[in-house]
Fold:
Amino acid sequence: MPTVPRRRSAMRGHLVVCGDTPLAFRLADELTKRYLQDVAVILPSKKRNHGPQIARLPRVKVHEALELNDEAFRDVNAEAARAVALVGNSEVGNIHAALRVQELNPGARLVIRMSNTSLGARIRTLFNDCAVLSDGAMAAPSFVAAALGDPAPSHVRVAGRTLYVARRSDRPKTIICGLADTRRSEGNPRLLPDPHETANLVLAVADKTPRDPLSAHRPRHRPFAFLARNLRLVLNRRLMQVVLVLLAVIVIGTVALSLSGESGFSESLYLVLLDLAGAANPDPSLGGAAKTTQVIVTLASLALVPAITAAVVDAVVRARLAGPLALSEPISGHIVVVGLGAVGVRVVAQLNDLGVPVVCVEMNEDAVGVPLARREGLPIVFGDATRKETLRSAWVSTCRAVVTVTSDDITNLEAGLNSRDLKDNVRVVLRLFDDDLAARVHRNFHIPVSRSVSFLAAPAFAAAMMERQIIGTIPVGRGVMLIADVPIAQGSELEGRPLSDANQRGESRVLAVGRRGGQHFDWEPQDGYLLVRGDRLIVLATRAGIGHVRARSIAPAPEAPWQPR
Structure:
């Protein structure tokens, strides 16, 4: 009797998560508790990073492996896995591991973490069924909403555009589609009405038009106050004190020489000028006290020139570090974003698209968000955000919110607390990796908003593993509308059908089409366009609508061969 090969302990159809990052922990927790799935996690060690927390999760089996090789994937039975998430810190490692998984299990759905979304869009075309997500892109709308004081994000970043909810009466310039008719009932609005012109809530493109009333109430330009404030920012106080003391010594010495009667005021002033030029020697005709006074004046004059030089050089360096803001008009009602990394650059881009004035603070001039800020003409303060001088340069005392999104918890916390010292009622939005630290900061320092990127991004990654690639959510009344990226698979029901077939009244509407996996989207697609394999649909839909569109866009599952009992 032939022996039946023994299967691994994992069940067929389980999920695999690779990594020991905060996102890996949050993702495993989301899959086990919300979706009640069995999860296998591959990580280097149960004792390092988030390994101990992952190992304590129910329905999770942990496998330790120093690298994501074929043996590690076979040990967790990846050949039978329904989906595999690669959420480690190395993007190259994630791509390499994804290629290994596809060789072992071509039918598995792959979810890859990548911060470079443009590269990710090209990478996903290399795999049969793949979603490439950026945790920073998923979390940024929540940081923006918190900074603006909104209870939930009312905008989403899609294919290089920021879409936001607006009232038709506000006359937004570019309307994508009608979102809902809330005139009948605010709590239970009519979603995606047809025709869409009947909707009073619309989805529009943010075009940097100021939508914040505070932007219209900036302080009047006061040249003298502006000059004095900027001088305080760039001048070194100690050097200026030295210069003033030397000037005082020179003036007092000059007056003393003129009052001694041995030389007139004009002659004393002439001697001082010679001293400054380094061409004067003590006058032998002067008395002992007058001679001593002239020597002191001479030494002070010689020290004054290098002191002024040092003050000027220091001021130039400070102005360079402070960036363009130190030389621009003071502003108020703006938002200060500390950190121009993968998360910060997206927060800045969305705030700028929404027409909110932004001031950036960054330590590293080579940060990924610096080119964007310079291209958009946004002021940047280069310096240590934990120093109050740097925060003063960003006009924290007149801002409405401070968003600290660097990759270091201590920097974020110290910058937030120092901002509170400069302005008591400023809204502070902290990015904190450590959830326990975030809870204690909330309780002890009374900072109401502290958010983790992994906490905000994990639901989208979990939805992608469950074959629902959600780009963003938009609350409407007591409900929520979803925006999803839906690829058209070969053999699917929608392949070869006109675009209008994907639209369902009250449930789904196609916003844009990316033809044959291309990077550019058509935001005014024709209803008669015939969908082909590789097309990508950006769909606005209800939860039920997303399920219907997704079911019609995937290839039919092959029938299992009949086996006798």
